[in-house]
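COMPLEX REQUEST
Ligand: S-adenosylmethionine
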Amino acid sequence: MAADFEKQSYWHHRFETETAFEWLTSSSAFMDVLAPQLTKLPSDARILHLGPGTSDLHNQLRQRGFLNVTNIDYEPLALERGQQLERDRFGDVRMEYLVADVTQLELKPVHRVAIDKGTADAVACGPADAVLSMAKAIHCCLDSDGFWVSLSYSASRFEGVRSFFEVEVASRIPTPKLKPTDPDIYLYCYLLRPKRDVAY
Ligand SMILES: C[S@@+](CC[C@H](N)C(=O)[O-])C[C@H]1O[C@@H](n2cnc3c(N)ncnc32)[C@H](O)[C@@H]1O
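STATUS: Structure written out below.
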């Protein structure tokens, strides 16, 4: 990823014209990957959708019956786009939209799930400890059964957070090849479960 992907100004400029785009994979394909985790959840589970950009993953969650979804992005235009996508699909806006930096969240520990698709990758373009800060912030927002699902292009995205998260690669998603001889390249769907009683 280009270094600018951690900068809010990059996303602001981009979302001035972009109204719908999916990073890494489509939201419907990601929902298939999320399905084993989502089927265990009550429909009133509190879900954090981190760095939604102009993805319609939130609409996929609402379509599955999840309404307690808080979409968090530091770029207000992303949230405007998200609300428009929700309105276009359902005729109203019932999910929450919050302008905040995912490396500095201050939310109550009441959330069952945090989901990000490509956001940790964007954050990783910033300072060396940015993903660590994001992970600490998410750790504080999750309830006792909570977990974080992250889709990343990196096979080593969360090596630095193992002292306070159990990190598992729940699945690897092969990316499309242009030629049969192209190398196998995967996306990594991480399942991160908070360790308890850890000191940062
Ligand atoms: C790579 S895009 C992914 C967008 C969307 N999740 C998708 O799959 O298409 C990264 C998104 O994260 C947001 N973002 C990046 N760093 C952030 C931060 N520190 N706090 C909040 N949002 C951030 C950007 O504004 C952008 O919407």
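REMARKS: The pocket of S-adenosylmethionine is lined by residues 6, 11, 21-23, 51-53, 55, 73-75, 78, 101-103, 117-119, 122-123 (CB under 6 Å). The longest strand covers residues 142-152.
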